[in-house]
Amino acid sequence: MTAVARGNLSDMSELYQRRHKSLFRFFFRLTGKQTASEDLTHDVFVRMIRYRHTYTAGDSFDAWMYRIARNALSDQVKKHRWELPTESSEMEKVESSRPDPFETYAKQQDLALLHRAMRELPEDKRELIVLSRFQGLSYEQIGQIVGAETGTVKVRVFRAMKEMSSIYADLQREKAS
Amino acid sequence: MCGWAKERIAASWTGELEPGDQAKLRQHLSECAECAHEMTQLTAMWDRLTDMPAPEPSRALQVRWEATLESLGGVVAEKPGLRWTWAALWPQQPVWQFAVAVACLVVGLVVGAQWQRGAKNEVAALREEVASTKEMVALALLREQSASERLRGVDYSTRMPRVEPEVIAALIQAVNSDTSVNVRLAAIDALSRAAGQPQVRQSMEQSLARQESPTVQAALIGYLVDARDRQALGALQQFAKRPNLDDTVRERAGRAAQQLIEFR
């Protein structure tokens, strides 16, 4: 990124190859929208070029990139008045379009419940789970992204998991009845 | 639930638990049933999240990025870093220090104004280049092997502020010769934005004679009526006489011809 900050765009290309899928998944897990997630991913890379001078060498690149990503998402939510999560999420299509003869019906049902539980989580909690569980960021990096102390992030992630677990249990009961 | 344990349990999920805390947490869990229960339940949920598959971006994203990067090549020029060692230049005499400070202020104001203007131009150019990439993406996708990607290309074309001639040509080609009926229908729909252009209406009129699918034929008839293309009257009347035509389409063509006469 330091090279990109100096204007070397060929390094930006490499950066894109390394990070775009992960960034796309971040947006997809938060929005459940394929096209919107692609638009946002593209937007983040364009913003990274535009605001490259705001990156300080030696700082966590991930923290910088996800701060830009959060701003891009927030702008889009305001612009399009999105409600996160979406009711008719494309997330479940990812499941149904995956032909796997070994996947049991019960497992598919379980995944659908997990998706619903994720969708029903408040936005800030879902974001914390996505950043820590799926994006593989450390609590320190998440703290830099959301502007909180590392210890606070750990407690918030714990609470988010507890709420998700509770929603999941409710959904299971609802399904059983 | 003990506050102390919350942080440690969360840290254990990501492998960030300090070695010293590991033993303490184990000890605590053996003494506190509530925390032990939470640990088991939430760790199971944390592990289960691994099962949620990771979605993949479509090829459109890559195409769009490559187009953006290519277009930005000339826009983002390398900015040389300013690596002055001011201390070496700093005069010892207060009078000269004051003079240098004033000079720096003046130079700073002038340079700052110039730099700001340059940055504004760069951002404007960047925006313009990004806007034009949608056109490139639409064109690239319309050439893809997969029908779903071509449909995405048609979709991209509808998101452009105006339909460029190259995109119009690609959409007309799709209406005429795409192997997928869905892509043809989507292209007809996308071309409704360009219905004001006589050459587009003419192409749609000519395309009607080539189509074999009743659905596409019906969509084209609808297009010509919506465009109120009086020039198409002859073509529609001719088309209605075509042998082996679907009865519904024939009836629709006849009705469309009548509507065009009424528009006159």
Give the gist of this structure.
By secondary structure, chain A is mainly alpha-helical. Chain A has one domain.
Could you explain the architecture of this structure?
The complex is a heterodimer of chains A (177) and B (264). With 177 residues, chain A is an all-alpha fold. Chain A contains nine helices and no strands. Helix content of chain A is 75%, strand content 0%. In chain A, helix 2 (9-31) packs across helix 7 and helix 6 (105-120) crosses helix 9 (150-176). Chain B is mostly helical and 264 residues long. Helices cover 73% and strands 0% of the residues of chain B. Chain B has 13 helices and no strands. The longest helix of chain B is centred in the middle third of the chain and has 49 residues, at 94-142. Chains A and B meet through helix 2, helix 3, helix 5, helix 6 and helix 7 of A and helix 1, helix 3, helix 4 and helix 6 of B.
Counting copies of identical and different chains, the oligomeric state is heterodimer
* Tertiary shape of chain A: globular
Terminal CA distance of chain B: 81 Å
Q: List the secondary-structure elements of chain A in sequence, H or E.
A: HHHHHHHHH
User: Which chain pair shows the most residues in contact?
Assistant: A-B, 50 and 42 residues
* CATH A-level architecture of the domain at 134-263 in chain B: Alpha Horseshoe
Shape annotation of chain B: flat
Low-confidence stretches of chain B: 74-85
Question: What's the helix count of chain A?
Answer: 9
**How many domains make up the coordinates of chain A?**
1
Q: What profile does the largest beta sheet of chain A have?
A: none
Q: End-to-end span of chain A in angstroms?
A: 54 Å
Radius of gyration of chain A using CA atoms only: 18 Å
Largest sheet, strands/sense/barrel of chain B: none
Attribute tags:
heterodimer; A: 177 residues; mainly alpha; 9 helices; B: 264 residues; Leucine-rich Repeat Variant; 73% helix; flat
